[in-house]
Angio-associated migratory cell protein
Amino acid sequence: PSADDLADEMEDVDFDEEGAEEPDAEAWETEDDEGGEDGMEAQDDSEVTFSLHSASVFCVSLDPKTNTLAVTGGEDDKAFVWRVSDGELLFECSGHKDSVTCAGFSHDSVFVATGDMSGLIKVWRVDAKEEVWSFEVGDLEWMEWHPQAHVLLAGTADGNSWMWKIPSGDCKTFQGPACPATCGRILPDGKQAVVGYEDGTMRIWDLKQGTSLHVLKGQDGHQDPLTCVASNQDGSLIMTGSVDCQAKLVNSATGKVVCVFKMESMAPKVPAGEGEEAESNSVESLGFCNVMPLAAVGYLDGTLAIYDLSTQSLRHKCQHESGIVQLLWEESSAVVYTCSLDGAVRLWDARLGKMISEYRGHSAEILDFAVNKDASIVVTTSGDHQAKVFCVQRPDR
């Protein structure tokens, strides 16, 4: 093409649009750009930015032993282990051929596991930076390390859950219904796991025997796919969340539903106009407070609900302007953290139902985050291809 042709093509390019999509859009920013996109670019409260990913970053975990290393996985089929203090790369977990959606360290930080959507799971020895094990399952839905052993549990789209000893690879499978095992969690005693399925059922599995101890289905189960499960500190209570907007509290010993938290007074459903989708809502994340009988449930419509377990009632509703992606409780206080589609991390005092602080720095939605043990830092991953480290230590603690 001649120079004139190129010039004509250039005229057709809408630079505003282009720039917003490009990962290096930052380079174009000038002083007047304060507002950025919907004000999301304007402030960056982060201490460290990790930018080796070239697409959305889906998952992050911190190493439990020292909290000095993070592992992130992304849509670029890559996973990296890096230092939280300065964003320095330790090593790349190479060899994935699909988006890395699961990543985590073993309980003692000796191993790190990465899993991609196609079902390829790899385990690396952190100190040697070398791969020690890999295995291929069906499409991967979730993956979790055992809280006390070098054992990995994963759920797949065919309904099975898999358990392996690492690095020997001894394997056990737990056959669920013929639909995806959408979420799972090993209970704190390390002997049982709770798995939620797309058909609304939940099972509590005995990991040693490989048998299912309790099955919740029909009225006891959910009407729609499960999205998340959590347990309290001693594992006596389980909470399940679903696309049906309900959170169920279950006694893990009896498998009985203790109570159902429904969001009754949701914003009235506006009938969808031509070609519009009706506003959807679902439970996206939930968790128990360690120091008070409280539980938090985060909804896609931006509601953070704090429930009082002793009275089984709604204690506070904290409204976000956009959907909550995930929530985490601080380990030793009644502070709950949320990350949402507007790219901000927020800290809430669950006793008062009030926001304590807000941290921004991402130019797109936050997709996952992790909080370190002493609640001094938060590591986030985002659709803007970056992971960020925020210092959240407050003078009053």
Observations:
- The longest helix spans residues 3-12.
- The chain has one domain: 48-264+279-391.
- The chain is about 5% helix and 45% strand.
- Residues 48-264+279-391 form a domain with the Methylamine Dehydrogenase; Chain H fold (CATH 2.130.10.10).
